[in-house]
UniProtKB/TrEMBL annotation:
Transmembrane segments: none annotated. InterPro entries: AAA+_ATPase (IPR003593), ATPase_alpha/beta_chains (IPR050053), ATPase_F1/V1/A1_a/bsu_nucl-bd (IPR000194), ATPase_T3SS_FliI/YscN (IPR005714), P-loop_NTPase (IPR027417), T3SS_ATPase_C (IPR040627). SMART domains: AAA. Residues 72-253 form the AAA+ ATPase domain. It is found in: Cytoplasm. The gene is yscN_1. Pfam families: ATP-synt_ab (PF00006), T3SS_ATPase_C (PF18269). Keywords: ATP-binding, Cytoplasm, Hydrolase, Nucleotide-binding, Protein transport, Translocase, Transport. This is Type III secretion system ATPase. Its EC number is 3.6.3.14. One of its GO terms (biological process) is protein secretion by the type III secretion system. It catalyses: ATP + H2O + cellular proteinSide 1 = ADP + phosphate + cellular proteinSide 2. It is an enzyme of class 3 (hydrolase).
Length: 351
């Protein structure tokens, strides 16, 4: 019998610490207590209702907070090939000191990885302020698609309640693949990068639902899997154009044991100039310049052809490079506060 009503999602404080599936049903063996219900496919807030992004949201990760500081209410893409440390970075972002609530959605992951991520990667305190939505790779395509809508709806509830919410979605690529599966079954024709037009038409409306609201905010991090480290494939290119910044993970850095494997030179936050001080921006520019200069002369250094004294700026970049690498590396349980961050930046760049 047709009910003639839209799919609704359970929302409320009672979901904190819980694990639900892509349709909003509990997966942790406990019944849902009294909750509110909201339509899964709400409209994004009007542009003139949104407050502007003016405050930083510190993640506690030095490689991000130093040169690509995120703003409260920003939407960021994490672009990564498989096996480069994406899940570990997400766990570190769950500990962001500027967040009141975390909503984590895992789409198309293996069941083993989901259980390990929840039990071993997230600590108990983090889980208490986290809602986890899971749609594993064996679930129907419709459930994998709905999982991201469910997580976004839950995040919207907490934002409307005045909370600072961090939404972590892993991954937008697997959401798009599930949407492609549905669209092709419905008779749509694949066009750009084997994706039907409907996949790209739904992305802007879904991503626009996050961001600043009248009272609270949703700072969103969406992971995007890139094939063969190709940052210009159609889906990655489209997502990058819709978001307010991107974090790029480097396979080369991961192979060197440099974690988090964030490629600082390829990483960008579009709100960085708005949410940082003049002194912070100057330090970030200097760090980027040193890294870029070192990359230019790295081959000459390795083959023994570099001559000191010819380029003073390059000499300085070479001298500071080991300290910069040490600064950018970080254990997953380590959180760096903003005061200590600036102090360390000044120390390594002025020695």
């Amino acid at each position: 019998m047709a009910l003639r009503r839209r799919h609704q999602v359970p929302v409320g404080e009672a979901l904190l610490g819980r694990v639900i599936d892509g349709l909003g049903r509990p997966l942790d063996g406990r019944e849902l207590p009294e909750v509110c219900w909201k339509d899964y496919d709400a409209m994004p807030p009007p542009a003139m209702v949104r407050r502007p992004i003016t405050q930083p949201l510190m993640t506690g990760i030095r490689a991000i907070d130093s040169v690509a500081t995120c703003g409260e209410g920003q939407r960021v893409g994490i672009f990564s090939a498989p096996g480069v440390g994406k899940s570990t970075l997400l766990a570190m972002l769950c500990n962001a000191p500027g967040a009141d609530i975390n909503v984590l959605v895992l789409i198309g992951e293996r069941g083993r990885e989901v259980r390990e991520f929840i039990d071993f990667t997230l600590d108990e305190e983090t889980r208490k302020r986290c809602v986890i939505v899971v749609a594993t790779s064996d679930r129907p395509a419709l459930e994998r698609v709905r999982a991201l809508f469910v997580a976004t709806t839950i995040a919207e509830f907490f934002r409307d309640d005045g909370k600072r919410v961090v939404l972590l979605a892993d991954s937008l690529t697997r959401y798009a693949r599930a949407a492609r599966e549905i669209a092709l079954a419905a008779g749509e024709t694949a066009v750009s990068g084997a994706y039907p037009p409907g996949v790209f038409s739904t992305l802007p409306r879904l991503l626009e639902r996050t961001g600043m609201g009248e009272k609270g905010s949703i700072t969103a991090f969406y992971t995007v899997l890139v094939e063969g480290d190709d940052m210009n494939e159609p889906l990655a290119d489209e997502v990058r154009s819709l978001l307010d910044g991107h974090i790029v993970l480097s396979r080369r850095l991961a192979e060197m044991g440099h974690y988090p494997a964030i490629d600082v030179l390829a990483t960008l936050s579009r709100v960085f100039p708005v949410v940082t001080s003049h002194g912070h921006r100057q330090l970030a520019i200097t760090l980027r310049r040193h890294l870029a200069l070192y990359q230019e002369v790295e081959l000459l250094i390795r083959i023994g052809e570099y001559q000191r004294g010819v380029d003073i700026a390059a000499d300085k970049a070479i001298d500071t490079y080991p300290n910069i690498c040490t600064f950018l590396r970080q254990n997953k349980d380590e959180v760096c506060g903003p005061e200590l961050l600036i102090e360390k930046l000044q120390q390594i760049l002025t020695e």
